[in-house]
Each structure stands twice: as structure tokens, then as C-alpha cells.
Write a structure and sequence with these properties.
This protein is α/β, with parallel strands linked by helices. 44% of the residues lie in helices and 19% in strands.
Length: 301
């Protein structure tokens, strides 16, 4: 590799897509962010147009900082079958198609936390998943089945649990929301206290936008027992998927990452309490776009 070679790493998530450029020494020389996207959007024409639009903005930002020679992108929901994002990145960045790699975003987040075989990553973003990459490179998972089915402890799940409680309470006692700090914060976020406002919010937006409602829930944890209970259950949900891998492959340290895990300290505390005392738990800010940038360059060796 030449001294000026740059690797572009991309971490495409449901709420935000982050990118970073790394030089040949692995030093991050530039980074930025654009809107969220996922592989699930590739199922429709409108979704594909949205993904290409996000990638176009990202490429313009990155090229303004430097021209990469290799690209590694982690894409939420990627299963190896969506070739278009890789083609678009090659075109937009002016690199050879062979220099672009697209992987599942959780694989890259794992490699930002552990070397293969070392430990388990529990990641809570819009959704949730536990991952282990074995020493032979095999990828193993628990959870991560999507917000419709589960993804307990992720931002969407937190938002859904709050909305579910609020509207069940309203069914039984209309106007009860006024006494609830959590309900007031939630309704302020969605833009109204009537059902129409909540319905438009829940059913009229993508999962990333809904997941951001978890910020309002977390902000009321210290003042509302229901919000506190949701945060505690989120931690237990994250412990559950971590323990699923422990039971299958044996005890190893667990790293807790993802923005939803940092919404309130109670989430990590509840997860810690639900794990065996002898099992190490490390909470860290994952920088998957940094790891992807270094992977991009290393893949050229």
C-alpha cells in the first residue's frame, strides 16, 4: 500500500449512516454521517431510490475529504444477496467493483470489539442482536430477527413498549397520560396526545424514526416508574440473547454496544444483574465505521 492510500469504512444503520477514512497506518483522517438506511429497503423501488440517495450524499462527503482505494460497508440486514449497494458505491466513488466489500453491519461491529473467537457482542441499536465470530470465521447469532418479531431491548422495542403501555392505560382511563412523565414526553415527541398523532407516528414512518422515540422514554426513566421498568426489561432482554450464545458456545466476555444501550445507565445495570457474576461485561462505544475503514485497507494485502 502507498502512503496516501485511504480506506473508506461505512456503518449503515437504521437511524444514521456513518463513514470514516483511514490511512495506511490505520489512523482515522476524516469521518462524517448521513441518514439511515438498511438492506430491507432494497425490496422496493422507492427503498432502492432512498438507499442510492443516501449513498450519493455519503460519497460526496467522503470524496471531499479524500479519495479511497478500497471500501468496506456494513449494512443493516445485509444477507449477501443485495449487489446493488456495492455497484453504486464503486460508481459513485470511482473505484473498481472488486475494491468494494459489503457485509452485515454486525460483523464489522463485532470486529471493532473482539478478534474472532474472543467474546460475544450484544448490540442494541434500532433492533438488537448478539453475535460471535468463531476463530474459523464462522458467524453465529442470537436475536436480530427484526422489530416485528422481537429485537427486545432495542430502540424500536423500547418505543413500542412505551406506546403500548400508554394506550392501554388510555383505554382504561382516558386522560391518564397527563399524570405520566413518560406519556407527556412521548406525546411531545410524536406531536400530539390524541390517537391520530400516535397512529401517524407509529404506522407512517420507518423503524429508525420510530426507534428514536426511545430517547423520550429514556429521558423520563428517573421520574416515571413505567419508563424505569421498560429500561430494566430492556437490559434483561439484552442479557437473554447474550446468554443464548454463552449456553451454546461457552462462557466468554460480553461487550455491550449500540446507541440504544447508552440511552440510560439502568439498561446496562439491569443487563449486568441478569448475567452470572463471573461473566465479564464491558460496555463500549462501538465505532464500526472506523473498523470498516481499516478492514477495507487490510483486505488489499
Amino acid at each position: 500500500m502507498g502512503a496516501l492510500d485511504l480506506g473508506l469504512g461505512i456503518d449503515a444503520g437504521g437511524t444514521r449512516t456513518r463513514w470514516a477514512l483511514a490511512d495506511a497506518a490505520g489512523t482515522i483522517v476524516a469521518e462524517g454521517g448521513v441518514g439511515g438506511m438498511s438492506a430491507l429497503q432494497m425490496a422496493s423501488d422507492a427503498g432502492r431510490d432512498a438507499v442510492r440517495g443516501i449513498l450519493t450524499l455519503l460519497a460526496a462527503q467522503a470524496l471531499a475529504a479524500g479519495r479511497p482505494v478500497a471500501v468496506c460497508a456494513g449494512l443493516t440486514g445485509f444477507d449477501g444477496s443485495a449487489a446493488l449497494p456495492a455497484q453504486w458505491l464503486a460508481e459513485l466513488l470511482g473505484v473498481a467493483p472488486a475494491a468494494v466489500t459489503v457485509r452485515n453491519d454486525i460483523e464489522i461491529a463485532y470486529l471493532d470489539s473482539f478478534a474472532p473467537g474472543e467474546g460475544y457482542l450484544v448490540y442494541a441499536g434500532t433492533g438488537s442482536i448478539a453475535a460471535w465470530i468463531a476463530a474459523d470465521g464462522a458467524f453465529h447469532r442470537a436475536g436480530g430477527r427484526g422489530v416485528t418479531l422481537d429485537d427486545g431491548g432495542g430502540g424500536f422495542w423500547i418505543a413500542r413498549e412505551a406506546m403500548r403501555h400508554i394506550w392501554r392505560q388510555e383505554d382504561e382511563e382516558p386522560g391518564a397520560w397527563r399524570r405520566s412523565p413518560m406519556a407527556r414526553a412521548v406525546f411531545d415527541h410524536v406531536g400530539g396526545s390524541d390517537w391520530d398523532a400516535s397512529r401517524r407516528f407509529i404506522y407512517g414512518q420507518d423503524r429508525g424514526a420510530i426507534g428514536r422515540l426511545a430517547l423520550a422514554v429514556a429521558a423520563s426513566v428517573d421520574d416515571d416508574p413505567v419508563a424505569r421498568g421498560i429500561a430494566e426489561q430492556a437490559g434483561r432482554e439484552l442479557a437473554r440473547i447474550g446468554l443464548a450464545l454463552v449456553r451454546r458456545y461457552g462462557p466468554r466476555p460480553i461487550a455491550l454496544g449500540g446507541r440504544a444501550a447508552t440511552l440510560h445507565p439502568l439498561i446496562a445495570q439491569a443487563m449486568r444483574a441478569a448475567l452470572p457474576a463471573a461473566l465479564p461485561l464491558i460496555q463500549r462505544e462501538t465505532q464500526a465505521h472506523h473498523a470498516a475503514a481499516r478492514i477495507a485497507l487490510n483486505s488489499r494485502n
